[in-house]
Amino acid sequence: MERRAVPREGVTFYLKCLLFSYMITGLLLMLLALLLYKLRLSEQIVSIGIIVIYVAASFFAGFVTGKKRKEKKFLWGLLMGTAYFLILTVVSFAVNRSVDDLAGNFVTAFAICACSGMLGGMLS
Question: Which domain range does residue 27 map to?
Answer without folding.
Answer: 8-123
